[in-house]
Write a structure and sequence with these properties.
The complex is a heterodimer of chains A (about 425) and B (about 300).
Chain A: E1 7-15, H1 21-31, H2 37-49, H3 58-61, H4 65-70, E2 77-82, E3 86-94, H5 100-108, E4 112-118, H6 125-136, E5 141-147, H7 156-170, E6 177-182, H8 206-212, E7 226-227, E8 230-232, E9 247-251, E10 262-266, E11 271-279, E12 282-283, E13 292-297, E14 308-310, E15 317-328, E16 340-345, E17 348-361, E18 368-369, E19 380-393, H9 400-403, E20 404-408, E21 415-421
Parallel strand pairs in A: 1-3, 1-4, 4-5, 5-6
Antiparallel strand pairs in A: 2-3, 7-14, 8-9, 9-13, 10-11, 10-14, 11-12, 11-13, 15-19, 15-21, 16-17, 16-20, 17-18, 17-19, 20-21
Chain B: H1 10-28, E1 32-35, H2 40-53, E2 62-66, H3 72-85, E3 89-93, H4 94-99, H5 118-128, E4 132-134, E5 151-154, E6 182-185, H6 193-203, E7 214-221, E8 224-227, E9 241-247, E10 258-260, H7 266-275, H8 280-284, H9 294-301
Parallel strand pairs in B: 1-2, 1-4, 2-3, 4-6
Antiparallel strand pairs in B: 5-6, 7-8, 7-9, 9-10
Helix pairs in contact in B: 1-2, 6-7
The chains are: A alpha+beta (about 425), B alpha/beta (about 300).
């Protein structure tokens, strides 16, 4: 019997075909034996049919007809591969500015982001934008893969210049963990194996880094946050033991819960004690993110979907006025002050109104335009929102699950924005 | 689970994610239904739905889109499972749709009812007023599916518009729809074929016997081994032979291929799958070989 695989790393890649992003992903999949023969044959056949001179690995990820026709990545594609150490979920996102919303989407769940930089071109406007978005979405780990090292004679000087330039730019952002790796995706240097061509580089290969980066402590294990999804009440007349059963089902968004812990219910402010925690595999004595569990309490409290369970001495903020950074994602309507929207935060859905657009942020220069009176597709800005019912929120930087929300258009039902609560930018 | 540093194994993470999705959809939609074919993915999905609401029963019915071209072992499994869990089973029948003239049977040797499933599926969704249909599709199966959302919007014609999908952030799913529209929900989006098998083993889930090696009368067509059952329309020039096979996917008998295998136990099957170099759809589904975008085209019309 094979040893069970350890855990999951979700990572996002940003860049365009020109940066060698697809080649890099193709290389990771190919070298980890995650591309199947029929997939490769299909890509080879299509490449030949289209008169391309080499096998275009981008065809592996660009799955939609429109993407193949136009030779571009439009949407986020998810790819999977595993090594004996980890399972990996890649959110492959397009790099161009008109697809900022796709990158934001891919980054929202990522533990790590890879930004590709062409060694010949150095840090570009788009590299800065990708770094900014990674920070905005609080992706805990960032890897700058300096690609096409083969085309600069594997030069240490070129690599160091890029590292210096990026590092000085990065001080304006708050990047938790930043790693630079010189690679050649085409030839495989430092992708899976350490390269013999760059003896001056003493760090890990990209795959080795992905396998070993420590992500367990990226979760918030301090602040207990349990948004209630639904109440489980079996009502089985045949089983009297279940007659009084009342469980609160949800996915732990923060902290560690244990039977015997005193907890507080919001909005009521009433306290009780956890008597049981049931996991999908039966009773457990601890629950932590991202476990899906059912909790039972000693006292009967009126608890329903959208409520929050926390600790009495560590509560989220109950807020009806929110300051948030938002990325606008609708291609038809723009965001303007007084716009009314539906807001979904944890398991709670409320109505919201845009009270103020404080500024629009230029994602390339980080310049704040406080004269802006609207946000259009892919634009990012800081807003003040008023909601109809209190939300139980944390700063997005402290907890992505209790600090993030989406906005929904009330007429079209489209998801029109991603929001990050009170995410102060330095 | 290793409690010391609060690590979760990949199966625990995938299980927790799927249960969160199932609960979220059950809480926010009036009338969900779970599409249950008796295949391994829908069997795993059903088990996850059981766990999501335990000790309460699953709070929605299941639906089988029945092509009429079934493996007996799978139908037997379906009926037994549904009875065991006390669920309501809705059968959407392709044969009925043909009899009513809603769809026309394909002609020729390679005729398949696979594509015909879309019409009875959409009719049943409309007739029963279902607003959300759980499906067992995985993103690793096929390149069009790699682009699909977990909660995937369908318009009033049941169509999927791949270029106009709702962004899906964090674990927040937009469940808003207008009357007549519905969503498809894919709790297993992030599972791979191997994850499904590892989970089946870990949970001790029973599968229909055709997933394990058995002897069967088969014939070869387009490089695939098809069961010699009437729907496959075997021709005079396609000789029958007996072979030791198992199924890697379960679909319409007319277009689902078997693979040669001696794997009689779960451990043997997992070992074979871990070593295989061909995808399950590429190896066993004639319908996806039709063109580069066969799945995308079917999905746009409302297929699973």
């Amino acid at each position: 019997m094979a040893a069970p695989r350890m855990d999951i790393l979700r990572f996002a890649t940003a860049g365009s075909v020109d940066d060698g992003k697809s080649t890099l992903i193709g290389r990771l999949l190919y070298d980890s034996k995650s591309i199947f023969e029929d997939q490769l044959e299909s890509v080879e056949r299509t490449s030949v049919d289209r008169g391309e001179e080499y096998t275009n690995l981008a065809l592996l990820t660009d799955g939609l007809r429109a993407e193949r026709e136009q030779g571009i990545t439009i949407d986020v594609a998810y790819r999977y591969f595993a090594t004996p150490r980890r399972k990996f979920i890649i959110a492959d996102t397009p790099g161009h500015i008109q697809y900022t919303r796709n990158m934001v989407t891919g980054a929202s769940t990522a533990d790590l982001a890879i930004i590709l930089v062409d060694a010949r071109k150095g840090i570009q406007e788009q590299s800065r934008r990708h770094a900014f978005l990674t920070t905005l979405l609080q992706v805990p780990h960032l890897v700058v893969a300096v690609n096409k090292m083969d085309l600069v004679d594997y030069s240490e000087t070129v690599f160091n210049e890029i590292v210096d330039e990026f590092t000085s730019f990065a001080t304006k952002l708050s990047i938790g963990d930043l790693t630079f790796i010189p690679v050649s995706a085409l030839h495989g240097d430092n992708v899976v194996e350490r390269s013999m061509n760059m003896p001056w580089y003493d760090g890990s290969s990209l795959l080795h880094h992905l396998e070993n980066v420590h992500i367990a402590s990226d979760r918030n294990l301090i602040d207990v946050r349990f948004p209630v999804q639904c109440v489980i009440r079996p009502h089985k007349s045949t089983d009297p033991a279940l007659h009084d059963y009342r469980g609160y089902a949800g996915q732990v968004a923060g902290g560690v819960l244990k039977p015997g812990d005193e907890v507080m219910h919001l909005p009521s402010g009433l306290t009780s004690t956890i008597t049981h925690i049931e996991s999908p595999s039966g009773p457990v004595d601890e629950a932590y993110p991202p476990m899906s569990v059912t909790i039972r309490l000693a006292d009967e409290i009126d608890i329903s979907r959208g409520d929050m369970i926390c600790r009495p001495n560590n509560q989220p903020q109950a807020a009806q006025d929110l300051d948030a950074m938002i990325c606008w994602m609708d291609d038809v309507k723009a965001l303007t002050p007084r716009t009314k929207l539906t807001l979904k935060h944890t398991t709670r859905t409320v109505k919201a109104m845009v009270k103020d657009l404080q500024y629009r942020l230029d994602v390339n220069t980080l310049h704040r335009d406080d004269t802006a009176d609207n946000l259009r597709l892919n634009e990012i800005g800081r807003v003040t929102l008023r909601v109809t019912q209190p939300l139980f929120v944390d700063d997005y930087g402290r907890n992505r699950l209790t600090g993030g929300f989406i906005l929904i258009d009330e007429a079209t039902n489209a998801t029109v924005a991603a929001g990050m609560i009170s995410n102060p930018l330095r | 689970m290793q409690r010391a540093d609060y690590l979760m194994s990949q199966l625990d993470v995938l299980e927790a994610e799927a249960i969160h999705i199932i609960r979220e959809v059950a809480a926010e939609f009036e009338r969900p239904v779970l599409l249950f074919s008796g295949g391994k993915d829908s069997i795993v999905m059903l088990r996850l739905a059981e766990k999501a609401f335990a000790p309460a029963p699953i709070p929605f019915p299941v639906m089988h889109v029945d092509t009429g071209h079934n493996f007996d072992e799978v139908i037997e499994y379906r009926d037994r499972k549904v009875a065991e869990l006390g669920l309501r089973l809705v059968v959407a029948s392709v044969q009925d749709a043909i009899d009513k003239g809603q769809v026309v049977e394909q002609k020729g040797r390679r005729a398949s009812r696979n594509k015909l499933q879309t019409v009875p599926l959409l009719n049943a969704i409309e007739e029963h007023g279902f607003t959300a249909a759980f499906g067992g599709a995985r993103r690793d199966e096929e390149k069009a599916r790699a682009k699909e959302r977990v909660v995937s919007f369908r318009d009033e014609f049941g169509q999927w518009d791949p270029k106009n999908q709702r962004p899906e952030l964090w674990n927040l799913y937009n469940t808003k729809i207008h009357p007549g529209e519905h969503v498809r929900v894919f709790p297993l989006s992030n599972w791979t074929e191997l994850d499904i098998w590892d989970y089946v083993r870990r949970e001790g889930i029973e599968l229909p016997s055709i997933y394990f090696a058995h002897t069967r009368q088969v014939f070869e067509r387009d490089g695939m081994l098809l069961a010699d059952l009437p729907p496959a329309n075997r021709g005079e020039d396609e000789p029958v032979f007996e072979a030791m096979v198992r199924y890697r996917t379960v679909g319409d008998t007319s277009c689902t291929g078997a693979v040669k295998s001696a794997a009689v136990s779960l451990d043997d099957v997992i070992e074979e799958i871990a070593a295989t170099r061909i995808t399950e759809r590429g190896q066993t589904r004639a319908d996806d070989r039709a063109s580069e975008a066969a799945m995308e085209d079917r999905k746009k019309e409302g297929y699973f």
